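Model it.
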Amino acid sequence: MSATRHSKLLIVGSGPAGYTAGLYGARAMLDPVLVQGIQPGGQLTITTEVENWPGDLEVQGPDLMVRMEAHCRKFGTEIIADHIAALDLSQRPFRATGESGATYLGDTLVLATGAQARWLGLPSEETYKGFGVSACATCDGFFFRGQEVAVIGGGNTAVEEALFLTNFAGKVTLVHRRDALRAEKILQNRLLRNPKVEVLWNHVLDEVLGEADPKGVTGIRVRHVATDAVRDIAVTGVFVAIGHAPASELVADLLKMQPGGYVWVEPGTTRTSVPGVFAAGDIVDPHYRQAVTSAGMGCMAALDAERFLAEKDA
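Modeled.
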């Protein structure tokens, strides 16, 4: 028979939002159970230097997540290596079924499954992830001061990333497969007026070029969509900015959603459309997508869950 665990607070996901919810839930004596998911630690486990986490001048992303996990465990959060395959939110306690076959019951539930950057799927892109290839200019742009970088995409995300990178890079080449941007007009105007930006129209990225020792990006190979003409451009950083995909498949038909697949929450809270279910971090946030904002929402979710239970018991 498969194991069944019942807790006052069940947390699904283990990035900054999930671990912070676990920490605050444990301190509130909710005896939280946290199911880590496929990628324990979330997106920070594929980030190298983190220089914008308050209190650390610099910390490696994986090291930060190891510390957050240890902090959770110290205060009593039970952390389980499993991946939730199905949820039943029709009644309390809420029921989660793990791929292991285990069943997890929660009087309250915090969803902190995060989001994943969309990638192009190129082998060379995968090779240099974390070594010059990034999907977060806010996270990594600082490391390219005075250098030449490329941004791939043509929507709001790409234009915002390119504009942000002009604060650091000497030159930003925006590679877009069409002859017009899809971004908002005000963003387009800012981009096209910026002297540090060159837009390469009607081109796609074919390959990220680089070296193995030391591992790093040296350029990109792009192809014209109409003529198939290929050219190489020397850059040291490549920012893939074709959007993010929130990991909300589990609840897409169970909760009220925002455009883009993000979970809706009541403004100023982490309360979802189902009482007792809370959501935090990148699964609700299409705008900021920072570790520190995710952690803040994880705190909010645990406090919201504590208050929900207190009101039910009153």
